[in-house]
Amino acid sequence: MNLPLNIDYSGKVVVITGAGGVLCGTMVRAFAQAGAKVAALDLNEEAVKKLADECKAEGYICEGYKANVLEDEALKAVHEQILNDLGPCDILINGAGGNNPRATTDNEYHHEAAEGQKTFFDLDTSGVDFVFKLNFQGTLIPTQIFAKDMAERKAGCILNISSMNAYIPLTKIPAYSGAKAAISNFTQWLATHFAGTGIRCNAIAPGFLISNQNRTLLFQEDGTPTPRAHKILSGTPMGRFVDGEELLGGVFFLCDEKAASAITGVVLPIDAGFAAYSGV
To answer: Which keywords accompany this UniProt record (predicted)?
Structure first.
């Protein structure tokens, strides 16, 4: 992987949740390549163990841990393991999150709903609750546990993952959009709360990326874009999707204690211009 910036994270302990996914897995590899000691956390233990083994085979320092970001006691036990294996956390990346079909409508506009489609009135409240818990509490709980390391040493960085949905909600996914808006707000709250401790807290807001979760929403079986993908691209000035590795420049910058020493409480869009375009 060609790293976007010449940044040395040697000696830093970086904890990344949601590391079993493609995007956060890329961040794990990048920080390991930049010299950090990386703890990769995910509910999918097999995925993070495999990721850690691959990083170690390349000569980097990385350990994989099974972790549920919604179970504080279990996460505290993982924290103790990381302290023993790698040391106290210097950088926390709250990457765990996602949507759920139970909290998603089938139609963009209610007046266009066809018989049998799941409408706003059919949304499963337990699904909505799950999406909010996964995204918001899944950021709050790891921060409670790992930021203690930083507060004790009066230094550290927290990076949350917001979304372009936080600025303008997308159709069909009201719970996910609302939850990501909460992440942006929480990022500002944390930045203020920890301002006197030496801890900085920022977030990135990725634009539209292609992942295993949304591939079928964006492309037909023959590889051509779906109508939803056409809408996205027509509203994106650069006319393309964002590649996962294009997040790394912003991530490295915001996590660097020298380059971003006075930057806290910001949400950085990495969106190929989507937020800048009015549609006209």
So the answer is: Oxidoreductase
Please write the tens of the pLDDT for every residue from 150-168.
Answer: 999 999 999 999 999 999 9
Rg (CA), the chain: 19
Show me where the domains of the chain are located: 13-207+242-268
Indicate which residue of 60, 65, 176, 277 is catalytic. Answer: 176
Of 154, 38, 181, 13, give the one whose Cα is nearest residue 97. 181
Find tokens 């650069």 and name the residue: 238
The answer to whether 39 touches 149, Cβ cutoff 8 Å, is: no
80: which 2 tokens? 């103790």
Distance separating alpha carbons of residues 170 and 184, to the nearest angstrom: 16
Three-class SS string for 202-250? EEEEECCECCCCCHHHHECCCCCECHHHHHHHHCCCCCCCECHHHHHHH
pLDDT band at 197 (very low <50, low <70, confident <90, very high): very high
Query: Tokens at residue 50, please?
Result: 């495999």
Q: Phi first, then psi: give them for residue 73, nearest 5 degrees.
A: -65, -45
Largest CA distance in the chain: 59
d(CA 49, CA 26) in angstroms, rounded, equals 14
Active site residue 65: no
- Do residues 190 and 158 touch, judged by C-beta distance below 8 A? yes
Q: Rounded distance, CA 208 to CA 189, Å? A: 26
Q: Are 158 and 92 in contact (CB under 8 A)?
A: yes
